[in-house]
Write a structure and sequence with these properties.
The chain contains 13 helices and 5 strands. The chain is mainly α and 317 residues long. The protein has 2 domains: 210 residues, HUPs (Rossmann fold), CATH 3.40.50; 83 residues, Tyrosyl-Transfer RNA Synthetase, CATH 1.10.240.10.
Length: 317
């Protein structure tokens, strides 16, 4: 029996952080033994907010190294980048033709962006259609993401259903996989950890950077257990180990932060090392991305041919 398919990705818009890892990337690695995995770099998604070609290139390469460093085995997992597969943008257009403006106006990301400024690019509005194409081209069974991406996966399901209703059964409905315990990893200020809030602990931070981030964690002085420190610590150690430790050092925030620094260093150091190894093998890493793209392209173009047949634009035999 063939394996079930897993697909996911991250936009290449900045440095990966431990929220990305525990919320999404770790699940990819854990599930990669069981699933046929497609993990990609959403560079065209990043383009809606990043218009610096040098930065774009750097981010793409960095994310590729991140993917390899977390332990995605390129012999088993197909790694590719979105812009190598033109079918993603092609299918997004077709989805645009069956999706209404009021429907997309209800998307959280669009509403948040609109609340900040009315001068939004069309791509911010259209973002979920490209994401639906990313997903549906590969017929995945599961899409592991953090909580903030739930709505995007739901929009993909709705879009698949709508297309199937109009043109006949074509797309499989994907299931989001969102781990309850790490659905929203908190940042150093207690809000959701996010690049855009500047409250992250980078996934490949050097020791000094870990120290600086942890010392900057906002502590609530009204309680013996500093919630923000504990919540991040709990990503690395179970409550059964942490609670006695936090009780023993109740109110001693500096000691608790030092313990967290040591645990973070223990967790990050091997990832950092593996990333450095891949940095030294950049041509090999890029070759992996390129050949992954060729494999993904074959699947995407087959699906796209089916779509073209269904919508009636294929007039040749
Ligand atoms: P950011 O908010 O930092 O820009 P992305 O939007 O690039 O993060 O998210 C990449 C992946 O990581 C997505 O699957 C997203 O749901 C997940 N993710 C991001 N931040 C968190 C978080 N704080 N907790 C859990 N998952 C997260
Ligand atoms: N929007 C996702 C994020 O910000 C990235 C993404 C693009 C994605 N296409 C996807 C995730 C398809 C899962 C499946 O992280």
């Amino acid at each position: 029996m063939s394996k079930k398919v897993l697909l996911s990705g991250i936009q290449s818009s900045g440095k990966a952080h431990i929220g990305n890892y525990f919320g999404a990337m770790k699940q990819w690695v854990d599930m990669s033994k069981e699933f046929d995995c497609y993990i990609f770099i959403a560079d065209y998604h990043a383009l809606h907010s990043l218009q610096d070609p040098k930065e774009m290139k750097k981010n793409i390469v960095n994310l590729l190294l991140d993917y390899l460093a977390i332990g995605l085995d390129p012999k088993k997992v197909t790694l590719f980048k979105q812009s190598d597969i033109s079918e993603h943008t092609e299918l997004a257009w077709i989805f645009d033709t069956i999706t209404t403006m009021p429907y997309l106006m209800r998307a959280h990301a669009f509403k948040d962006a609109e609340a900040k400024s009315k001068d939004i690019v069309v791509a911010t509005f259209n973002y979920p259609m490209l994401q639906a194409a990313d997903i549906l081209l590969y017929s995945p069974d599961v899409v592991p993401v953090g909580q903030d991406q739930r709505q995007h996966v739901e929009i993909s399901r709705d879009t698949a259903e709508k297309f199937n209703r109009i043109y006949g059964e074509t797309f499989k409905l994907p299931e989001p996989v969102i781990m309850d315990t790490v659905a929203v990893v908190p940042g150093v200020d207690g809000r959701k950890m996010s690049k855009s809030y500047g409250n992250t602990i980078p996934l490949f931070a050097e020791y000094e950077e870990i120290k600086k981030c942890v010392m900057g964690i906002v502590t609530d002085s009204s309680e013996g257990i500093p919630k923000n420190v504990y919540d991040i610590h709990n990503l690395l150690r179970p409550a059964s180990e942490l609670l006695p430790l936090y009780e023993e050092h109740t109110g001693k925030y500096k000691i608790l932060k030092e313990l967290l620094i040591e645990d973070l260093e223990k967790f990050i150091a091997p990832l950092r090392e593996r990333r450095k190894e891949w940095e030294g093998k950049l041509p090999e890493a890029l070759e992996i991305l390129k050949s992954g793209g060729e494999k993904a392209k074959a699947i995407a173009s087959k699906k796209m041919n089916e779509v073209k047949e269904k919508i009636g634009v294929n007039v040749y035999e």
